[in-house]
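Progress against Task 2.4 (sequence-to-structure conversion) is shown through the following example record, which the project officer requested during the mid-term review.
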Amino acid sequence: MDETLVDLWDPRTGHHQATFAGHLDSVHCLAFSNDGKLLASGSADFAVRVWDVETGRPAGELVGHAGAITGLSFKPGAGAVLASSSKDRSVRLWNARTLSHMVPLRAEGGLPVTSCSWSRGGGLIAAGEAADPYGADPNVACIRLWDSVQHVQVGEVVVCGCAVSGAGGRFGLLFGVGGQYEKPFFSVACDSGQRNLQQQRHDQGNLMEQSRYFGELVLSLN
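Structure tokens generated for the chain above:
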């Protein structure tokens, strides 16, 4: 299997629609724009590529990161503002229609960013950071909260864990930080109105399930 390719399928019919080729290394993440017309893909080649879903043709490339792309998320609403997270310890904001870079979000002394997610209203961005599981201090993880208009950090929570995963839910932001298989894990919810991070510890729980790799959490938002 060629991990540099992106295949588009119709889930209703099971028919293959298109193959997007252009990345030079394995593709790590994907995100559709809110109107479904654009598809963004992030790769270990440090690039974010944007594709026209209707024509199956490339719309352009977003270049600026200096590390593998780990997460992509379109801002809620009618626009095409895209957030991308990277192992270069930053989150960058782009206009996916004009293919222009807007602003980088980077914390001094920050860790590699493993995921990013918008609040329901689009006013906040959460970035999950985690140390290399093979590094000197693998059990460090942090979730930073950014104001998407002022581009300043407005909150953070630091917990022990190996990986951070996140998703946007109906009630705002939800992130999980997982340790080794037998250790407890934490869920962190963000109230987008109050800009408040709330942390809850779980010894066992059904909200998240642990995956095989470094205790990363797969969020279930059903």
